[in-house]
């Protein structure tokens, strides 16, 4: 919103500038109004063309090669740690595939139950995914989630560099299938034109088979 107000102010100044310059040129060079207007009209055209270019760059993000981007690979394993509990180990590899350094300050890790649910619960969750004319992801029962705050320094990933993060959960051993979700928030994203809200990965992991599906 602040960016739009600044742009509006800039365009307003540009609209008033030719008028101010006309009076300045007339006073300083003692030109007639038509001649001064002709000179200022040429200058005003150049100014407006330049502002139009600035607006196009801002509106359409013509230099998106400088936008941050991460590629994510996620792997899941499990280990029986007691008679009734399993440890879920998730390793996420972040590769900076952009041309700029990418800092990470906030992350979200979540595991959800993806099996052994009642028909009534599945129907309820499916119905909740429809919001008016839009459809959201089905919110499967959350088993656990972790929020990590890396500020003030954050994690910094240079172009071409790969960084790995590992996190663990403990769940009951009767659960057969889980959905694993990882989200690394983009600190530059104020709206959709600044790039994605973040970079995420989702896996469905079968504990019975020890298999992962992206």
Question: Could you please describe the fold and organization of this structure?
Answer:
This protein is of the alpha+beta class. The protein folds into two domains: 2-60; 67-213, Sandwich (Immunoglobulin-like). Helix content is 31%, strand content 38%. The chain has three helices and twelve strands; from the N terminus they run ααββββαββββββββ. A five-stranded antiparallel beta sheet has the order 7-4-10-11-12, with no helix packed on it. Strands 1-2-9 form a three-stranded antiparallel beta sheet, with no helix packed on it. Strands 3-8 form a two-stranded antiparallel sheet. α1 runs antiparallel to α2. The longest helix has 28 residues, at 2-29.
Q: What can be said about this structure in brief?
A:
With 214 residues, the chain is an alpha+beta fold. The protein has three helices and twelve strands. The chain folds into two domains: 2-60; 67-213, Immunoglobulin-like (Sandwich), CATH 2.60.40.
